[in-house]
Amino acid sequence: MKRIFFVEDDLSLINGLSFAVKKQGYEIDIARTSQEAETLWINGKYELVILDVSLPDGSGFDICKRIRQTSKVPIIFLTAADEETDIIMGLDIGADDYITKPFKLAVFLSRINALLRRSDNFNQPDTELSSNGITLQRLKGEGYKKGEPLNLTSNEYKLLCLFMENPGVVLSQEQILGSLWDCDGNYIDNKALTVYIRRLRMKIEDNPGEPQKIVTVRGMGYKWNTDK
Would you give the end-to-end CA distance of the chain in angstroms? Predict the structure, then answer.
């Protein structure tokens, strides 16, 4: 049974979402403060983390940063702030998705299920990919640049897999969003994809300002360049 780590201080929201998540067949552990979250995270093993941004003793952003130091577990932010800067910040520090309050329960559950399903799919492959000095060991879910480990988030790893599986092929933004989020891109917009591309380039390119591996094809999309 998959275990979900839920960090939220609103008791009414906790009760409602916990009941709904358990009906889906998941186990759930709950922390209402940053301090409780740190203790539970150290002692537990989870397949998904859901973080509220505003907590009584800190921020979900800080918890996300600490988790990303050691884990690629999928992370969803819950936030009452729908400002673009807050959303981009959440994605930029390693979150896989964000949901703004208020939200519909059916949509919330659908996005949990989709993220867990995608995580399973990307962690199942049985081959190694290598190109442009980048190697992905797919059984381990790890990436390397010239033998040095890449500190990739879950979505960065998935995005890099997608590019390396399609060398020289121009992938449109719609194709990329559809492959990563298993939907028509209704939940994550093109601005979020731009953040992921920029962040991934910072980690794999020799000169991120002039990318040679993930190149932009103006008016069409992006491709994994094999013509260097």
Answer: 46
Read off the pLDDT of residues 120-155 as tens digits, 9 standing for 90 and up.
655 554 467 888 999 988 767 789 998 899 988 878
- Residue 213: which of 198, 199, 201 has the closest Cα? 201
CA 184, chain centre distance (Å):
17
Place of tokens 């960090």: 7
pLDDT, position 207: 94
Contacts 24+ apart (CB under 8 A), 117-120: 117/182, 118/74, 118/158, 118/180, 118/181, 118/182, 119/47, 119/48, 119/74, 119/154
Give dist(CA 156, CA 64) in Å, integer. Answer: 15
Q: Measure the CA–CA gap between 213 and 133, rounded to whole angstroms.
A: 10
For domain 3-122, the CATH superfamily is Response regulator (3.40.50.2300)
Each domain of the chain, given as residue ranges in start order, spans: 3-122, 128-224
The CATH class of 128-224 is mainly alpha
Q: Is the pTM of this model over 0.85?
A: no
Residue 26's identity, in one-letter code, is Y
**pLDDT confidence of residue 184:** 41
In CATH terms, are 3-122 and 128-224 the same topology?
A: no
